[in-house]
Write a structure and sequence with these properties.
158 residues, alpha/beta, Glutaredoxin, 5 helices, 5 strands, elongated
């Protein structure tokens, strides 16, 4: 009887290890997918955004409109962030493709950046006020502003 119990326990342990390896492989696949698309991953549906938010600690979502000049400026900056910023993932979506997000978070002005941290809205950046109201600013300035807001949110959560 003891041999049977030992065999059952060994099989259960082996099963747990297999399940954990599968989970770890899935997490790595998600990370690879995100890393391959880091930065300005332009998405066309809210479902894609929710999936990325669910699987990443820090996500900046740009809500924009293709014909607004300032939205185009921020989309260019988000594209640059894609290749330089490693502390958060940046996504962009046209606001008309994100009615739930726009409604839930009361988006009335575009462009608007929604910052998600640990699956919750951490902060927002509306328009260009955070950049001195100017069209001309460095991508580094945008990255620093987003990073500052994420850090401030972490401190208030402690």
């Amino acid at each position: 009887m003891a041999d049977t119990d030992e065999e059952i326990n060994r099989l259960l342990d082996s099963e747990d290890e297999i399940i954990e390896k599968i989970k770890q492989k899935r997490r790595q696949e998600n990370e690879c997918h995100v890393q391959a698309n880091t930065g300005s991953l332009h998405v066309s549906s809210e479902a894609e955004i929710f999936s990325v938010i669910e699987n990443n600690y820090r996500v900046a979502v740009l809500l924009s409109h293709p014909s607004f000049k300032r939205c185009q400026i921020l989309e260019e900056h988000f594209y640059r962030l894609a290749h330089t910023e490693k502390s958060f993932l940046s996504l962009s979506i046209h606001a008309e493709n994100a009615p739930f997000l726009s409604s839930k978070f009361g988006v009335k002005v575009l462009p608007q950046i929604l910052l998600f941290q640990d699956k919750e809205l951490a902060d927002t950046v509306v328009g260009f006020d955070a950049f001195g109201g100017q069209d001309s600013f460095k991508t580094k300035t945008l990255a620093q502003e987003i990073e500052t807001l994420f850090k401030r949110n972490e401190q208030t959560r402690l």
